[in-house]
Design a protein that fits this description.
By secondary structure, the chain is an alpha/beta fold. The chain is 35% helix and 15% strand. It has 2 domains: 220 residues, Spore Coat Polysaccharide Biosynthesis Protein SpsA, Chain A (Alpha-Beta Complex); 64 residues, no CATH class. A 7-stranded mixed β-sheet has the order 5-4-3-6-9-8-10, sandwiched between helices. A 3-stranded mixed β-sheet has the order 7-12-11. A two-stranded antiparallel ribbon has the order 1-2. It starts with 11 loop residues before the first helix and ends in a 10-residue tail after the last helix.
């Protein structure tokens, strides 16, 4: 979650406003997402943005799972669930998972150090992060790549709200990382602003892939090249008023001010990684089967990661109640200051299999993770 420094210690009223703001922001994206899903399927063999989605290079090499996180309660409980399912699927047939590291960019150890393998990265120097923790993410990767002993040849960049739902093979090749194409990353529609960071002499704007930094499987040596550029472009984008205006469609859709700014910088970091990759001549294999995003993706099928970033709200008839809180709901932003309770109620009949599977996986993890109710509280 993207929050200003020390947000975890804010007063309860402010926390409530943030919860409501995030919920409102999510629902204002609904119509856009529904319209997109009418026109774009989420299967691996469809074209995307005029490019054919390529198949796996099937390198078979192990990849290291790298999870960026903060020490906020909201981040911690998601990390614990994510790590639980990593351990469950790591050794299953078809998996190329290697070791796991939580890259903690809060600059200090926390209470999960003995539970999850963790590398503590320093935040950016005072003032450079502009008060937004998310800008520490690429800088944390630079430190980890320089200082850590990483055995695997490849790296999977992941986030706390990812759950491994099927064993994930190495989808990358030596020259091409694999990434998930986000429908709202549209370099060609923002060519004027992209050209400020990716000049014409570097090539056509279509060289900038419609991806973010996560989920991406990438060869370690390529990531070592890209990461410093990712840091620099992230900071330059944050400082450029025209970039804010060019990506302002996000703020307009969210229809709120301060909260939308918090959400916006996640988009900015994704664009920064896409541009940095293009600057180094790196093209990604686009895999729509890399992950699914309930409630919009209805079936798990052979996809590999559940990304539970959107709220799931339904009435008791099993109908999606987008635009308002449902009689049954699961939304990670309902649990900003403490973990969700064990044994969440299952959705009513008629709710898509993807949502049911998500809740069952959360329940299994919380039932088996020690001290679930006592740890990870703000």
């Amino acid at each position: 979650m993207i929050v200003r420094k020390n947000m975890g210690r804010a007063k309860s009223l402010l926390m409530l406003l943030i919860v409501l703001g995030f919920s409102f922001a999510t629902y204002n994206l609904v119509s856009l997402i529904i319209e997109h899903n009418k026109n774009e399927g989420l299967v691996a063999d469809e074209s995307f943005g005029g490019r054919k989605v390529m198949g796996s290079a099937k390198s078979g090499s192990k990849y290291h799972v790298a999870l960026t996180a903060t020490d906020a309660a909201y981040s911690q409980w998601q990390c614990r669930i994510m790590y639980y399912w990593y351990k469950k699927v790591r050794d299953m047939p078809g998996s190329d998972m290697g070791k796991f590291t939580r890259i903690l960019h809060s600059g200090r150890a926390d209470q999960l150090m003995n539970e999850i393998p963790t590398f503590v990265a320093d935040p950016l120097p005072e003032g450079l992060d502009r008060g937004y923790i998310v800008l520490n993410r690429p800088w944390a990767f630079v430190q980890w790549l320089e200082k850590a002993d990483i055995e695997e040849e490849y790296i999977l960049m992941a986030e706390p709200d990812h759950i491994f739902v099927n064993p994930l093979p190495n989808l990358a090749s030596r020259t091409q990382p694999a990434g998930f194409p986000f429908f709202y990353i549209k370099p060609a529609e923002n060519e004027k602003i992209i050209r400020k960071f990716y000049p014409e002499e570097k090539g056509p704007v279509t060289d900038v892939d419609p991806i973010g930094n996560s989920p991406v499987i990438i060869q370690k040596s390529l990531m070592e090249e890209i990461a410093p550029s990712w840091v620099n472009i992230s900071l330059r984008m944050k400082d450029d008023p025209e970039t804010d205006k060019a990506f302002g469609w996000v703020l307009e859709i969210l229809a709120i001010s301060d909260i939308s700014n918090l959400l916006y910088f996640a988009l900015e970091i994704r664009y920064a990684y896409a541009v940095a990759s293009a600057l180094h001549g790196v093209k990604h294999i686009l895999r729509k089967d890399f992950m699914l995003q309930p409630p919009w993706d209805l079936h798990v099928g052979k996809k590999f990661i559940i990304h539970y970033t959107y709220g799931c709200d339904y009435n008791l008839k099993g109908e999606l109640t987008y635009g308002k809180i449902g009689e049954w709901r699961f939304d990670k932003r309902s649990h900003l200051t403490s973990p969700p309770p064990k044994n969440l109620s299952l959705p009513p009949p008629g709710v898509p299999e993807s949502v049911v599977r998500l809740v069952k996986m959360v329940n299994e993890a919380t039932a088996n993770i020690p001290e679930w109710d006592s740890l990870n509280r703000t």
